[in-house]
Design goal:
about 575 residues, alpha/beta, 27-stranded parallel beta sheet, rod-shaped
Length: about 575
């Protein structure tokens, strides 16, 4: 087909194309050459879309690229289904209508600095690189199911389709890096099920879809790192089911979805670290529930304002390294319930406040498994901490900044980094939200014994019995008082010796001044006030004095007192011994 009726600009493009050259309509004046004013360019730099299509069809199987700079393209350029063995380059151009490359085959695609009303490259196959550096698309950019052998570079670009789908790249396959750094996207961006063999970058990008999902990258596969430093996003960033072989970094990112979820990484798989730190801020929920993170999860210095109730949801997460949550400022709840953390979960210097005026739990750590748990807050959390059935290697805490309410039934820890005064630990146990529970006392006593602090362990178990006594009925409490006063429920056996010595001295003095009378004068051995008092005090031992003499007058009441006290002491000592044996 021979092209006829061509304008001077079209003839120039045809001749340059045939000769393997590049056509440039640039004047050298940056203001005049700016594609933002491309609609005002005259016929001297205008090309018809139908001309470009015919030129490509006329070229047949040639291999030289089509390269045009600074042109104004009128009409819809339809290149769908074409198989080109060469590159297309429209740099700093202005397109009146859409560029259609649906299911096209070409070597490279360069749209550097170009303004488009829309681009449809779905199902397209590009052998090498797609470049859209500083391009602007005022409509939809479609790359779904496209296959790009090299890099996809949409850098410092502007994609604008507010309230609609601005970027659709579902199931795109990129053999190199996918770069969106510095790009502004107004409208939703969808990269669902995309596969990127190299690095993916959202650094310094601006994403805006406040009422929906700024980026839907569910089940995306990234062969290296996903970098999003200084990202600004209004709307949800969705990475549910994503597989990222390297790290996921959002240093100094600012994400905002008030009342909603800012980062959704449910069951994502991250091959290195998750880094939401160094200025990271989130107005909404950060959700990494069920995520598998091979390295560390780092939130150091992050500001999490939550969604009105929750701020960080890491339930069921599996973290191979540490969960570093140091110096955070959090409004709302933090949940690591049922999470598995290989190293430590560290809340050193963190401040946690309630999103509303309630005293509910602010940290949900129930069923957590971690090598170490550091709870050294900058200030006591405004709500409680739920630790039921958590299992920790080392508890590194400061009781002075624990909240007033705790739930620790079933909480197991092997060691306390800094036990501190036992009186403070007993007061710590008394903060149990559900009231008296025996398990926290027994757990603390077991830890003290493992650390060689047997005296502290006995004091904790004594405090346990006293706390239990307060839960008994009024009728059952007196016996507990007696056991406590006599032998400290068996944990203070030295008290029994003290009572025994005091009563023995009383008996010796009283019966030494006023001897009991012999029951059988002819058979009674010589009276001994010490032995007689021992006979009365020790109910299971008989020295012969107690059966040979009987107190009379007022001394009878002393004898009754010693006998009753002996039985009480014997009973309480037996109970204490039995308790000690059962504990062993």
């Amino acid at each position: 087909m021979r092209l006829t009726g061509l304008s001077a600009s079209e003839k120039q493009v045809r001749d340059d194309f045939r000769n393997g050259g590049r056509t440039s309509f640039a004047t050298g004046d940056p203001a005049a050459d700016d594609p933002a004013v491309g609609a005002t360019w005259g016929p001297e730099r205008t090309l018809r879309a139908s001309f470009i299509r015919s030129l490509i069809e006329e070229a047949g199987d040639r291999r030289a690229p089509l390269r045009v700079v600074g042109a104004r393209v009128e009409g819809r350029l339809e290149l769908e289904y074409l198989e080109l063995g060469y590159s297309l380059s429209f740099g700093e151009c202005w397109f009146q209508d859409d560029l259609d490359l649906h299911d096209a085959r070409l070597r490279r695609l360069n749209l550097r600095g170009t303004r488009l009303a829309g681009l449809n490259a779905s199902l397209a196959h590009v052998e090498a690189t797609v470049v859209m550096h500083r391009a602007r698309v005022d409509g939809r950019l479609r790359l779904d199911h496209a296959v790009i052998g090299g890099e996809l570079l949409i850098t410092e670009a502007h994609l604008s389709h507010p309230g609609e789908l601005a970027l659709r790249a579902e199931r795109v396959r990129v053999g190199g890096d996918l770069m969106l750094w510095g790009t502004t996207i107004e409208g939703r961006a969808s990269l669902r099920d995309a596969k990127v063999d190299g690095v993916m970058s959202l650094e310094r990008a601006r994403l805006s879809d406040p009422a929906g999902q700024a980026l839907d990258a569910a089940r995306i596969q990234v062969g290296s790192d996903l970098m999003a430093d200084e990202l600004r996003a209004e709307g949800t960033i969705r990475l549910s089911g994503a597989e990222i072989q390297g790290l996921l970094r959002l240093a100094d990112a600012k994400l905002s979805t008030p009342g909603g979820t800012v980062l959704e990484a449910y069951q994502a798989k991250i091959g290195a670290d998750l880094q939401c730190y160094r200025g990271f801020e989130a107005d909404g929920l950060v959700r990494i529930q069920g995520a598998h993170i091979a390295g560390h999860a780092r939130f150091d210095g992050a500001i999490l304002r939550g969604n009105g109730s929750s701020a960080l949801d890491a339930r069921y997460a599996e973290i191979g390294g540490a969960a570093r949550c140091r110096d955070m400022r959090v409004t709302g709840t933090i949940a690591f319930a049922s999470a598995r953390v290989g190293n430590d979960v560290d809340f050193r210097g963190t401040v946690v406040t309630a999103a509303a005026e309630e005293s509910a739990n602010l940290l949900y750590l129930g069923h957590l498994r971690a090598g170490e748990l550091t709870l050294r807050f900058a200030a006591p959390p405004a709500g409680g901490i739920y630790l039921a059935n958590a299992q920790i290697g080392v508890l590194n805490d400061d009781p002075a900044v624990w909240p007033p309410h705790l739930t620790r039934d079933g909480f197991v820890y092997d060691r306390i980094a800094e036990p501190g005064p036992v009186a403070g630990r007993i007061a710590w146990l008394a903060r149990e939200s559900a009231g008296y529970r025996p398990a926290p006392y027994e757990q603390l006593a077991a830890v003290y014994r493992r650390q060689g602090l047997d005296g502290e362990a006995r004091r904790v178990l004594l405090a346990k019995q006293r706390a239990r006594r307060r839960t008994l009925s009024l009728a059952a409490r007196p016996w507990g008082v007696v056991q406590d006063a006599a032998v400290g429920y068996g944990y203070r056996p030295e008290r029994a010796l003290g009572w025994l010595a005091a009563l023995l001295i009383t008996g010796v003095v009283v019966f030494g001044l006023r001897h009991p009378v012999p029951i059988g004068p002819d058979k009674a051995p010589p009276f001994n006030a010490l032995i007689y008092s021992l006979d009365l005090l020790l109910p299971v031992i008989n020295f012969g004095q107690g059966r040979a003499y009987i107190a009379t007058g007022g001394t009878q009441w002393v004898a009754y007192l010693l006998t009753a006290a002996g039985w009480i002491l014997a009973t309480t000592i037996a109970a204490g011994v039995a308790r000690a044996v059962n504990r062993a």
